């Protein structure tokens, strides 16, 4: 009787385990459909225009940052555009004012420096800020071993990718807390969700942004403030080096429209349905295997980049 009882218990445990796994998979699928497929058509996300009159976007002259600025302007928000190039800021501001008919304000700031935030705070004083998009970021010219990247990049990358998020969040948080409303969108990266060798410091800085955002989301939810970590995979931008968009690597505009539809529905979002699928598949793999695959892929990119540099030098 004992062996039969043992077999029966094992069978029950197996059924329960498979049922639990099946339920988790189904729940993930349903959540993904709601977040990435239905949120836009059904209008499930938060209407940011109801939270204030101004949006602030860092790193707003190119790529994802510019796309956020354009889309928020299209939704009726005035814009504070912050970046280091005054000429580019003026051009983007004029373009957005002409197209969307909103007010814009530009702030010239180099986020590689830690001495810019008093001026930014002064420039934002008195504005009814509905949304902050912490987008500014910097990456490597190409994937490489950490020891080859040069010590000079360390402080710069941490200042731009991590410190900027902390400082900008602190600037707007108190007024949002007073008004009991506001949205802070922190643009991290899929490489911040899964450790990515050959992008070590970049990956770590983006992991900081992801964890910082998720912690704050829990702290401030009861105060009416939405804080979201956004972790894109590849998007066709200057930073990624991808010139031609496709279904897996969308344009910044397509990506941002999708990501904004998830605001208020999740503390963390991949922003785009195929990026969410990539993230889900990677999560199924043992972390060491996922890291090995990433390193193999990026090492090929590294070798190709080095060869290209050598050819340029020979010319």
UniProtKB/TrEMBL annotation:
This is Very-long-chain 3-oxoacyl-CoA reductase-like. Signal peptide: none annotated. InterPro entries: NAD(P)-bd_dom_sf, Sc_DH/Rdtase_CS, SDR_fam, VLCFA-Steroid_DH. GO terms for cellular component: endoplasmic reticulum. Pfam families: adh_short. The keyword Manganese does not apply. Its main location: endoplasmic reticulum. It is found in: Endoplasmic reticulum. GO terms for biological process: steroid biosynthetic process. Keywords: Lipid biosynthesis, Lipid metabolism, NADP, Oxidoreductase, Steroid biosynthesis. It comes from Branchiostoma belcheri (Amphioxus). The gene is LOC109472375.
């Amino acid at each position: 009787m004992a062996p039969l009882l043992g077999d029966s218990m094992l069978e029950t445990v197996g059924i329960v385990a498979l049922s639990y796994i099946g339920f988790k998979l189904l729940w993930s699928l349903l959540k993904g459909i709601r977040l990435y497929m239905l949120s836009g058509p059904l209008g499930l996300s938060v209407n940011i225009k109801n939270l204030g009159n101004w949006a602030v976007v860092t790193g707003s002259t190119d790529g994802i940052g510019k796309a956020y600025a354009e889309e928020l302007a299209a939704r009726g928000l005035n814009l504070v555009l912050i970046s280091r190039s005054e000429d580019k800021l003026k051009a983007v501001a004029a373009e957005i004012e002409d197209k969307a008919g909103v007010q814009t304000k530009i702030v010239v700031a180099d986020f590689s420096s830690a001495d810019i935030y008093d001026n930014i705070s002064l420039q934002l004083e008195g504005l009814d800020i509905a949304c902050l998009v912490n987008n500014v970021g910097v990456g490597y010219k190409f994937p490489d071993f950490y020891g080859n990247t040069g010590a000079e990049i360390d402080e710069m990358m941490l200042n731009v990718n991590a410190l900027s998020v902390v400082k900008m969040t602190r600037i707007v948080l108190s007024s949002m807390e007073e008004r009991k409303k506001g949205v802070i969108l922190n643009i991290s990266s899929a490489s911040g969700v899964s450790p990515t060798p050959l992008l070590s410091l970049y990956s770590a800085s983006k992991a900081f942004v992801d964890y910082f955002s998720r912690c704050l989301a829990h702290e401030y939810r009861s105060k009416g403030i939405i804080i979201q970590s956004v972790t894109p995979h590849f998007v066709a931008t200057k930073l990624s080096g991808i010139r031609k968009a496709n279904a897996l690597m969308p344009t910044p505009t397509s990506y941002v429209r999708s990501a904004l539809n998830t605001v208020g529905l999740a503390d963390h979002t991949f922003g785009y349905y195929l990026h969410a699928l990539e993230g889900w598949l990677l999560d199924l793999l043992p972390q060491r295997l996922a890291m090995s695959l990433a390193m193999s892929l990026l090492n090929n990119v590294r070798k190709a980049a080095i060869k290209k540099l050598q050819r340029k030098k020979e010319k």
